[in-house]
Amino acid sequence: MPDIPFPPVILGNEPGSFPHSVLAERHPAIVRQVREAFPYDPGRHRALDALLDNCIKGVIEPLPADAHDLGRWEGWGMREYTGSSWFDVPWLWSESYFYRQLLDTVGYFGPGPWQGIDPFRPFKLAELDAPETDEELTALDTLAGRPADEQARALLHGSLWGNRADLGFRLSTEHPGSPAAAQGLVADDSEDLWPLLSGAGTLCLIADNAGRELIPDLLLIAHLLEHGCVERAVLHIKPYPYYVSDATTADVVDALRRLAAAPGAAAAYGQLLWSAMADGRLTVRAHPFSCAPLPYARMPADLREEFAAAALTVVKGDLNYRRLVGDLLWPPTTPFTEAAAYFPGPVAALRTLKSDVVTGLDAGTEAALVAAEDQRWRTGGTHALIQVCA
Ligand SMILES: O=P(O)(O)OC[C@@]1(O)O[C@H](CO)[C@@H](O)[C@@H]1O
Question: Per the database record, which ranges form the Damage-control phosphatase ARMT1-like metal-binding domain (predicted)?
Answer without folding.
Answer: 23-366
